[in-house]
Amino acid sequence: MKLTILTPLLFLPSILAITVTPYPKHPKKPRYTSTPRTSKICTVPSGEADSAASILAAAHSCNNGGTVVFSPNKTYTIGTALDLTFLSHVDLDIQGTILFSNDTDYWNANAFYLTFQNATTFWQIGGEDVNIYGGGTLNGNGQVWYDKYAKDIYILRPILLGIVGLTGGSVSNINMRFSPQWFNIIVNSTDVVYDHISISGGTNNANPAKNTDGWDTYRSSAITIQNSVINNGDDCVSFKPNSTDIVVQGLDCTGSHGISVGSLGQYPGEYDIVEDIYVYNISMTSASDGARIKVWPGTQSALSGDLQGGGGRGHVKNVTYDTFGNHKNDYAIQVTQCYGQKNKTLCELYPSELTISDIYFKNFYGTTSSKYDPTVGTVVCSSPTVCSKIYAENITVTPPSGKAAVYTCSNVNVTQLGLPCA
């Protein structure tokens, strides 16, 4: 059984405001309403070796009420880091293709640095009341980065689209292809809706497309991600530190690492919060996990040379996964407080200082892969004092062998959990 996209995308004439509405679930915060646009159109010229200056000029000219247009069947190459965080009441109508140049040396030195996990982005879009739509394509020229990363894991690979400091807006009806790293990051933003996004693009040789998360939210609230199809090689969606009041619904994800809370607790001295998250109506296929919560242990450890951490504090609270189809995922559910650490004894000696509570898994169905058969999930906390109120209800996921499904559980109230723990 695959999910059904519940609502069509609604576009109104360009002189009116575009309407992208969270449905059926929505964040707690009241929805921001875009103001009507004027008839002013700024069309970006095509065919330039580097369109960054023309895009910047069009954005300034049409700011405060207009629409910047990227024409259909045209390619716009961006070879210079582009800061569009000043936008106000403006639309970007992307009907053509935006292609980021393959100058890895330039981007490694000049892409916008976002601090968290050494994330960088080709361009950053922010301000107030900004809508991005049009049916066009963002192309990150990923293969050159996959090849580069295979030789140097410390290269800073840019994110395809950075929404940074945006209050009120939407990204809808856009194709995203071949991102060097994460496809989307949302930073210091509130009240943004993503709708009808198509994400795909892998390697054409032996060098894999690594860390290609669909979305990562960071220090943001009232975000909705819905009605989209994702084929990638890492988290379909990941809620990074201080992500609150977020709805994810109507996604069809293939080949990912699941809908993930975290990773959290990576940086000592920092307090991470993920709270008030609702994940609804998801189809997850051929992933490592379906629903996932990942927390670093209470001491430093290294997942890889370019990703290490542990010892941070914080909490995960009020997270619901509801109506979740699992199709050949290794685990339907995974909760771990030992992320990045293979030494389980060390995790027990230095339990996570990040608490997990009020977690709800509801209405899970489907069949896992054969990798861990008959185990279909794991709920493992590093200490009984840091996990509480974790519930599961109407979970009918089965292993492919037809044996009775079992779960690996540790340091959790199994009676409260309600899963068949081995």
Q: Work out the helicity level.
A: under 10%
Q: Which class of secondary structure composition applies to the elements?
A: mainly beta
Assembly type of the shown chains?
Answer: single chain
Question: How many separate domains make up the residues?
Answer: 1
Q: What is the fold's blueprint, element by element?
A:
Layout lengths: L40 E3 L8 H11 L4 E4 L4 E4 L3 E13 L2 E4 L3 H7 L1 E2 L6 E2 L1 E11 L3 E3 L2 H10 L6 E2 L1 E17 L6 E4 L2 E11 L14 E4 L1 E12 L5 E3 L3 E12 L4 E6 L6 E15 L3 E7 L5 E4 L2 E3 L3 E15 L3 E6 L7 H6 L3 E15 L7 E6 L6 E9 L10 E5 L3 H4 L5
Parallel strand pairs: 1-2, 2-4, 3-5, 4-8, 5-9, 7-10, 8-11, 9-11, 11-12, 11-13, 12-14, 13-15, 14-16, 15-17, 16-18, 17-19, 18-20, 19-23, 20-24, 23-25, 24-26, 25-27, 26-28
Antiparallel strand pairs: 6-7, 21-22
